[in-house]
Amino acid sequence: MTMHDVHGRGGQRFGPETIVGKWCVGLFLVFVTAFAVFMTLALVGAGTWEPEFSANLEATIPFLIAVASALASLVVGLVAMVRGGDRSTGVVVATVISGMVTFFFTGELLSVIGVLPQH
Description:
By secondary structure, this protein is mostly helical. The protein has one domain. Helix content is 65%, strand content 0%. It has 3 helices and no strands. Helix 1 packs antiparallel against helix 2 and helix 1 packs across helix 3. It is elongated. 22% of the residues are buried.
């Protein structure tokens, strides 16, 4: 039985190994940052919300950036894992969380436009 060093083959790494994997983790960090900005704005201005989504642009823009970066992180993460073979922990975690965010956002969007029943 041989021992591998940290950078040798055979060990699980946290950081991405490919350029596409780095893009996946970077887009995931953009998602986390934009969502934190959105939540901060939601907590600070909780009493001033309009019923229409686009009426409050200072909160709408970070939310749309968060959703777009989560979707992009999911797609880029899947490409990194399937084509690039990057199965580092950072890429897998970013892809799974981005997939869940995309799944729930798609369900909410389909519920709002009337395809799915509202809850």
